[in-house]
User: What shape does this take?
Amino acid sequence: MIIEAAARVFAQKGFSGTVMAEIADLAGVGKGTIYEYFDSKEELFFSVFEWFSRELGASVTVSVAALGGSASERLMALSSSLMRSWDEIRDMFSLFFEFWAASQSSQMRERFKNAFREAYGEFRGIVSSLIREGMARGEFLPHVDPEAVAAALVGTWDALFLQAWFEDSFDLTATARNFMTVLIQGLQGSGGGRGEP
Amino acid sequence: MIIEAAARVFAQKGFSGTVMAEIADLAGVGKGTIYEYFDSKEELFFSVFEWFSRELGASVTVSVAALGGSASERLMALSSSLMRSWDEIRDMFSLFFEFWAASQSSQMRERFKNAFREAYGEFRGIVSSLIREGMARGEFLPHVDPEAVAAALVGTWDALFLQAWFEDSFDLTATARNFMTVLIQGLQGSGGGRGEP
Amino acid sequence: MIIEAAARVFAQKGFSGTVMAEIADLAGVGKGTIYEYFDSKEELFFSVFEWFSRELGASVTVSVAALGGSASERLMALSSSLMRSWDEIRDMFSLFFEFWAASQSSQMRERFKNAFREAYGEFRGIVSSLIREGMARGEFLPHVDPEAVAAALVGTWDALFLQAWFEDSFDLTATARNFMTVLIQGLQGSGGGRGEP
Amino acid sequence: MIIEAAARVFAQKGFSGTVMAEIADLAGVGKGTIYEYFDSKEELFFSVFEWFSRELGASVTVSVAALGGSASERLMALSSSLMRSWDEIRDMFSLFFEFWAASQSSQMRERFKNAFREAYGEFRGIVSSLIREGMARGEFLPHVDPEAVAAALVGTWDALFLQAWFEDSFDLTATARNFMTVLIQGLQGSGGGRGEP
DNA sequence: CATGAATGAGGCTTCATTCAT
DNA sequence: GATGAATGAAGCCTCATTCAT
Assistant: This one.
């Protein structure tokens, strides 16, 4: 598939460092063939972005659906699951840089921005539901703002990846676990309120 | 100053979207003059990066130094102070995208990565000191890992900016405040432990 | 018919502006099918040229054959008939530009030149016969050079079309009539010599 | 001068047969240099057109200004002068084909058409003035339409060149002289009216 | 020191042509 | 025979960099 080849090259060389010929080579097709399916380099890039978002979204959705236990446990499990996926993501993580950069400088700025907004929104929604659920069960404090915490939390995970990116020795799993413990404690409030008293 | 002009253009057009001529124009110098001071476009870009890091680092250090009160209060104040600076940062925020992207695809990859590691490390250090201080004062729970929380927190702020970037309507201040409340509560543990008992 | 489709597209887009795919579409056949009948784009172009020449040649021959009256009258009638055909020709007129251009730059230069020479020669022959006939009848002055006048006249008609091409408001019919009146007068010499004295 | 080099190459290879590199080579400059002065291949082509028109227009204007004698004589002299210039024009004549073709298929169609209209109009104006002058002097018949004859005559000369283009053996001078004799006779009407009786 | 005209390597893209189905 | 997906050569154009002034 051309898109996957493109993803790989874009991830490695960046958008403008990437040469169409290399994608073609890696995909095992002729240069011209790419243009049968994608109007331009930029269009291809956007398609890679869509494909990547879809992939990632799907895997998150699946992993959340599989979760059980109290809200706290599920939140923690979600975090761990994400962190564990780092090794799979790692190679492709730099794609985010390129996507982000494209959201500013590309001529398709708006399309990228919209797509990002959506993707973040969706993920945030999943997490805020989880929190809201915890609140409904009395597991979490009532005055918490689920949206705010979800937004920040989603960002935190994102940013932990970013740090892992820069520091090979960065201990993603431990850092996330420690942080989540504190955060969940904060959500539960004093005495812990471990779900059912 | 050439660097500032370059920063502005890079922020707006991205690294490869930027044309040396435009920087020269904006800086009010000849194209050739840039090469008197910087060996190449990439070198200039890296210089922009260093300048930008320094600027940012300085402003954070200053704002932390000015902080007073309990560790919780100072943490909250730091967060608010950062969020308040968004409007100043906004225009230049996209530089991060470019820097991040450069950390992968640029030929100066390692220099970028190192600089990032350092910058994050420094900031993380400031925050973890704050937390450690809170622990020392008994304000925060003892079993917390200051490094982990600091790393995550620094990332969270970063990522909140990212979301504000994509969503104009994103309420940075409120989101950060809500989140920090929960997190600080988690750090303080049950009953709150407002500093000295 | 592929040739007619090709003619239409070549006329509209020019030789190199024409894409084989468009011809195929317009002709309602597959791109590959064209190559069953024509070895190359250039070959197809030349075939269009031949087809067009034949068409045009035929229509001129027919219209001349239908002419009656004195040589002057027939000359005038031929001119009018040609001018009247402008609306039919107009859309295809730009093909001439392409053919002419091809006669210089195409790899088939010689074939084009020859064909043009022939076509012009044939047309010139028809007109010079007409003039010679007028001379034989004593209608035209004896010292006229029928070949020269025919060559120029054929060219004049051609060039009037050219001007009509550039100027929508150009009055082909009137211009041609006025000019022909003068020319015929010149052929007849003093007193007019309306055919038989 | 780049324009002259371009003219030469365009004349030889046609617009799309021409490669920018060849122009650059012939002009003795780098490929990029051309783009310092012309935005695109098409713009360069149009500039060649303007340059060529100006050159030609100037030479015609000069040659007309130098003319003396009766209107008939001047008309004949103009014709001869034009025909004599064939050898100089010959090599560049095919540029006309390209220009004409461009007036249909180029994206700058309108600019070309306008320029042609103007150029033809100007030339036509010169010739019609000459005829009008002849009429004023009583040298030419009064009922002649100077505009029509001028338009046709300008076209005739054009078209004679065209035929000379296709037929090396075509005797431009003789053909033009013979034709002009007839035409002038037609303008003078019966008895000749050689200017002053 | 400053400049900006000149450069040419390099990349995206087009499209005539082929050939397996 | 007909097709159209695949191809890759080729060309326009950009732009970082140089260097004579």
